[in-house]
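Key result, reporting period 2: structure in, sequence out.
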């Protein structure tokens, strides 16, 4: 399901089911909030580099991408300490703040496996129609939320402590081959 708030032109993507995310002991989470080249349940496909310009503008102003609970702008639950594009997608790493009530609740739900996804809140800058959805070429990212139902089922949080050497190697190789294919194209 795609959400749309006409007051601020914010789009959100959420829906789907999947396996529960992992979380390390100090409430640090990491994962891909968006993956390139994979159609979400609405048919939209984020293209490589779609976030770059907007992230540069945001960071140049000294601002950050917000961590929200279920896309609710009234419920920030933590801070994203790193938001970066790589050859796979948009990778995020951050901390859930247990000093706030909503953060404590989110942490308890994550640990119990009651929530299991990441979802983006954004404004489309440049896209083109493609099949049942759109090819998203440029996106202004506003927030990444912890959600029950991500629109892109592969968008999951994982703790650094749960990443295996094989996970790290697979991500590195995927990024390397994507970059090599782009150079050869």
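The corresponding designed sequence is given below.
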């Amino acid at each position: 399901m795609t959400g749309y708030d006409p007051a601020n032109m914010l789009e959100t993507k959420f829906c789907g089911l999947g396996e529960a995310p992992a979380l390390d002991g100090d409430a640090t989470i990491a994962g891909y909030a968006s993956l390139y080249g994979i159609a979400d349940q609405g048919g939209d496909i984020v293209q490589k580099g779609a976030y770059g310009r907007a992230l540069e503008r945001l960071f140049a102003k000294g601002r950050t991408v917000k961590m929200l609970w279920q896309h609710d702008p009234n419920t920030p639950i933590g801070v994203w300490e790193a938001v970066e594009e790589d050859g796979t997608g948009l990778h995020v790493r951050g901390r859930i703040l247990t000093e706030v009530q909503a953060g404590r609740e989110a942490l308890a739900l994550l640990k119990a496996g009651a929530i299991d996804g990441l979802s983006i809140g954004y404004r489309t800058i440049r896209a083109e129609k493609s099949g049942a959805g759109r090819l998203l070429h440029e996106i202004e990212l506003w927030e990444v939320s912890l959600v029950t139902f991500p629109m892109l089922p592969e968008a999951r949080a994982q703790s650094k402590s749960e990443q295996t050497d094989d996970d790290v190697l697979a991500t590195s190789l995927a990024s390397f081959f994507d970059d090599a294919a782009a150079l050869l194209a």
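The helical segments are 52-60, 101-112, 165-184. Residues 14-22, 159-165, 168-175 have pLDDT under 50 and may be disordered. This case is discussed further under Risks and Mitigation.
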